[in-house]
Specification:
By secondary structure, this protein is an all-alpha fold. It contains five helices and no strands.
Length: 140
């Protein structure tokens, strides 16, 4: 189970790294001129980050997390685990929003300003902090 736990943590780190970096790319992409070399480079970077890192890391996080629960590392009767799962679902929704914006940028249809992406960049951070506190402190 220690290997599963390690793989879960590694997956979470990779997922979070991508979730924190992608909105930063959007901040800069949102001010790049449509059709410019810079805009096209951002499209490639965003697509690769989502497809090669963020999506696989999220899937691995879920697989290893479920494995930990099935393996008895945590019990579904633990209140902290219910709260963690709820926050992970919110993080997954945030992932979906970022994937949507990746598609909109790829289609040159972004309508959101730079400030929107600066704000949305903080959401995964707040969720990560809350999740880590729940897992380490297990307050309930």
């Amino acid at each position: 189970m220690q290997w599963v736990k390690a793989l879960h943590i590694i997956s979470v780190i990779a997922w979070m790294a991508g979730m924190l970096y992608l909105p930063r790319l959007f901040v800069y992409h949102s001010v790049a001129e449509i059709g410019s070399a810079q805009s096209e480079t951002f499209k490639v970077m965003e697509r690769r980050l989502l497809k090669a890192i963020i999506n696989p890391a999220m899937i691995a996080t879920y697989i290893f997390g479920i494995w930990l629960v099935v393996g008895g590392y945590a019990s579904l009767s633990d209140g902290w685990l219910h709260a963690k799962i709820a926050l992970v679902l919110l993080l997954t929704a945030c992932h979906g929003i970022l994937a949507k914006h990746t598609r909109l940028f790829a289609e040159d249809r972004n309508t959101k300003p730079q400030k929107f992406f600066r704000i949305i960049n903080e959401v995964p951070t707040v969720l990560m902090i809350l999740i880590v506190i729940l897992v380490v402190v297990k307050p309930f």
